[in-house]
Protein 1
Amino acid sequence: MPAQTIIMSASPAPVTAAPHAATGETLFWEGDAAERLYRIESGIVRGVRYTEEGERNIVGFYFAGDMIGVPVAGAYRFTAEAVTDVTYTAVLLDRLADDVRSGGAARLFETVQTELGADELHSQLLCRHGALQRMCAFISGLYRRLGGATIEAIAQVDMADYLALTPETVCRSLKKMRDSGVIAMPRHNRIDVVDPGALAAMSFQ
Amino acid sequence: MPAQTIIMSASPAPVTAAPHAATGETLFWEGDAAERLYRIESGIVRGVRYTEEGERNIVGFYFAGDMIGVPVAGAYRFTAEAVTDVTYTAVLLDRLADDVRSGGAARLFETVQTELGADELHSQLLCRHGALQRMCAFISGLYRRLGGATIEAIAQVDMADYLALTPETVCRSLKKMRDSGVIAMPRHNRIDVVDPGALAAMSFQ
DNA sequence: CGTTACGTTGACTACGATCAAGCCGTGTGG
DNA sequence: CCACACGGCTTGATCGTAGTCAACGTAACG
């Protein structure tokens, strides 16, 4: 069950602690009626969808500053699960409409940038032929997005489900990247980007 | 150069002929400042993007009723090219903001449904392993979207660039589908869906 | 009528999925 | 505290499939 905490209507003075979701918890479920958007304040969230055949797909990873939960036909497009401990702010849809009213055309699309951008990125990654290039492009993208050399907490299984690869292939690709010296892995779930330039170069075959 | 015709501000009485783009013409360019959205009235449009390495990617096909041209950071996300002759309506962004003002939360996301849905579909297709399944899912999706048994005018090269396959593989997959009797191809650029059920079934391996 | 782009077919190859086995780290119960 | 089990990671061997290269056929257009 997702955490149901939301920012209540009118209590501006003392900002209570931001709502929180522990590792593995679900923020919202695919298909549920969307009442609010979630703005991630800290931590990592993964967007999950299950195919008719029962395969798990990851549609995106989301980070601090991202706004997720945009509905299609009133329902959430994917299930949002906390990869790490996550703090977030919930924004009621009605409240959002007010914002747009005052913000005008420019603000109109701000709220959907995250999901539009995430989907776009996902397609671009999947278009790359070659497991190694896909992995390099993925890690390179994370490196830029997170603005730092260290990527932590994302399981290889999740990368596999995101990039439409098998866990074995992900593992082998990471090994190649280690052997090439573009990354280091002090622990299994931690990737240090050593040579960002070479990493980016390897994204384009 | 794209057709620059737009619906002018206040002339409600006699509806002039809808703006028109001939086969191959460009409606808008990736990266251009987005001033208006395009609502397709008839025909087929493809969304195109070129990678840094010069490869052509097709990000989506759009049909009558679809609204395209949603900007990210003020710029169009892809180039829109007319696959067939196309008629469309241009909606100024300012006008759109007015609409949202009067329409409230529900209308807020209506304008982005097309692109959000298209990106989602694209990811789902690309996630399928197996060229035949990908092709079947693609054709099956077109069949449902177009609400008819006939799919015309989409080149195999375009399908290849959309599904991240080679033209050769697309051709061979279509041949298999012909041999299985799920589709017929009276001409090279026309596909008749003969057995929609079997087609859908083949989408899931 | 020639040119060009697209489609078709075949032979070969490379890459990633699959199957199988073992390893490691974490968490739980005796 | 250790034993054990579980999930995730790692490595190897094999196989199938889609990419590649090459050649030819066919439709569309000026």
Note: Helices of chain B lie at 93-103, 105-108, 113-127, 131-146, 156-163, 167-180, 196-203.
Protein 2
Amino acid sequence: MSAQPVAQAAEARGTFGGDMDKGSGPVTLRMIADEVGVNVSTVSRVINSSDKEARRWASSDMIDRIRTVVAARGYQRNPHAASLRTRRSGLVGVLVPRLQDFVLATVYEGIEEAATEQGISTFVTNSLDRPENQASRTELMLSRRVDGLIFGDAHTGDPFLDTLAKRGIKFTLVSRRSGDHISATCDDIMGGRLVAEHLLATGRRDIGILSGRDYASTGNDRTAGVVQACLEAGIRIRPERIVHGGFDAPGGRQATERLLVQGGCPDAIFATNDFAAIGAMGVLRDRGITVPDDVAIVGYNDTPLAAELSIPLTTIHSPMHEMGRAGLNLLLAMLRGEPVESVRLAPELIVRASTAS
Amino acid sequence: MSAQPVAQAAEARGTFGGDMDKGSGPVTLRMIADEVGVNVSTVSRVINSSDKEARRWASSDMIDRIRTVVAARGYQRNPHAASLRTRRSGLVGVLVPRLQDFVLATVYEGIEEAATEQGISTFVTNSLDRPENQASRTELMLSRRVDGLIFGDAHTGDPFLDTLAKRGIKFTLVSRRSGDHISATCDDIMGGRLVAEHLLATGRRDIGILSGRDYASTGNDRTAGVVQACLEAGIRIRPERIVHGGFDAPGGRQATERLLVQGGCPDAIFATNDFAAIGAMGVLRDRGITVPDDVAIVGYNDTPLAAELSIPLTTIHSPMHEMGRAGLNLLLAMLRGEPVESVRLAPELIVRASTAS
DNA sequence: CTGAAAGCGCTTACAG
DNA sequence: CTGAAAGCGCTTACAG
């Protein structure tokens, strides 16, 4: 708090009942111990025990007295001292492609919320999906002595995460999955199937897919789900109907333009992200193609804007917040040494005007 | 890294050249010192000095040898130990209304970027603009021993920040200003003036304003700028032309509906936020009011979506990223004890189809 | 049930 | 120029 050096005046503290703070900084365990008239170790034990456990360490009278003084003085443990001693920091590092992305911001909110509930603090940073950033930011997090990491930017087939796992570093993935690493994701294959089934049921037969980045399991799984479901219905989606690109509006715009050029206009477009769907709608509008009469459009994620669009967007609701919470809780379980398994959350189809013919 | 207790095997370390790690956890200063054959204090001094300063503390031969071993072993200082000793954590807490909000996510990106450059780490959390959260999250940040705080959720007239300042807590504001507290903001009054000047120059005379939350200086200043500039042009904006509401699309929708009800349709609407502008456009479209022929629309912030809309949006570009950087750097200067002054960044008008008649 | 001691990994006066 | 010591605020065997 104060800029002045606090000096080594630890012994000069009053016996007990001294009510003034003397500007000597935050309350320490020693101050509490002195005021109660007991050893710091006793205070430490009481503070770090539940009501029941505490009984094993101290008389109930002692427990009451300590708790009273702790509350009265507003004691807060110094986390740096505790971390130094216990070798656990209660810190988690989170890497996301970009926090500006509504989807990842929401996932992170879930992570942060669950972390706070568990007394954990998080650092977040953007990797912009660039491998060199992923590596350097991970090392930076590690140098901050995080207990574990959560990646929202996993790249399919990239050995980076394998290397990390081999080093014994604990981490989970959110939003995107990769290999056998523990992850909390939406069941994107199922999501894709829901889209295909809806489109087929409403009479569409030629589906174009804005698949997103080729290194992201999200877009790939959603695409695979559509392809599977169509195949089961006897419809084969040609390769040129699947185009990759960015997950934002400009990315969707470009991908849509490529889609139209290379195969003519389909009767449905599935954008694996709502923002890409907005870009797609822009292109169609520019070309005088009407939605949903000429082309149905489906997005993914059920972003708030989806319902606000001039033509409200049919989309898949994915539990982004819950995904973040699960990713954090999985990591914590791993750190406790418990066996953990990946979580696939259920997607849900939300039908709106963009597919209602 | 490893879950097993690392044990007190500090003395059992090889003399020098021992290349294996023995799983004894991260490299410590002591290991470096032992390998170089020098006292830890010497290593500490060299590590924490610039090239020039180091000369005062050690022979250039010593400096080289230490630097070599530090690099070879990949030594990283334990920040908890250093914080405990120095009483400075290198940690900054950031409170924003909500990270899902593109504007605040971007401001935070700027904060985080500048922090990383300066070797500082940040914690972010959402307050949802609720006073009880602002208080509790601030205390939580303080219990994490942050050196200072950055608030993106300041409420005009709220004594909370005054109380904090009185407690000697160091903080800066971003995005919104409040009282005399140090802040890094866009010059929102100027931004409002730019909007009014453009609207007046293109023949508009009856401007409705979606002013946002009444506790946020952003919306209020932007509104004030419009009112001022209009007054100077001899046009008085009636109070019922100014409506408050949320800064998102639904908020803009509701505010617009109230605006239309209570005073008929204006010939221009200034939404103090791009997302609110999107909501406004939705309402107008539903009612068959055309943009820009019947009503011109202007947003604020120059969000990427603004250019992607069916009717591209005239808006004010505000340097959100730079605002975050400035907020962090101001805080750091304060912590160094330097005199600091608030920063007002220049807004810029971006004219698009929504006002081009 | 409670205390005393050691030690986590650093930094920084204080000596020399 | 370098070393030795103290101490930041905790936790945790180890005694009793």
Note: Chain A is about 45% helix and 15% strand.
